[in-house]
Design goal:
With about 110 residues, this protein is mainly α. It is built from five helices and no strands. The two termini are about 25 Å apart.
Length: about 110
């Protein structure tokens, strides 16, 4: 549960921070900044989880890749549901789900 929450919070915070930084470069850079911020923070959270011993170090890369793909999916959903606050908020669940799926796939490949 902790890993799931960490991935969601980090991805959301990274997207927000990136959007803020991007806004300084102009309106068009808000989306690019948000994408870059989330794509840095989501995998970063997976490596942080490995350092905190929440996951095995060997699982960090697959968890990071899953979180990054989950963030991309969440960004697509969020951009397409901006007319409602529910879509962008709920889409962040895809970040944690992606990370957990990546971790699970790594565990299956070890068998």
């Amino acid at each position: 549960m902790g890993l799931f929450v960490l991935l969601i919070v980090a991805g959301g915070a990274g997207g927000l921070a990136g959007s803020i930084v991007g806004a300084a470069a102009g309106k068009g850079a808000i989306l690019i900044g948000g994408l870059l911020g989330g794509l840095i923070a989501s995998p970063g959270a997976a490596y942080l989880a490995a350092r905190l011993h929440w996951i095995e170090p060997s699982e960090a890369t697959s968890t990071a890749l899953g979180a990054a793909l989950g963030f991309l999916a969440a960004a697509i959903v969020a951009v397409n549901t901006l007319s409602s606050p529910v879509g962008p908020i709920m889409s962040t669940l895809l970040i944690g789900t992606g990370g957990l799926v990546g971790r699970r796939l790594h565990a299956r490949s070890d068998r």
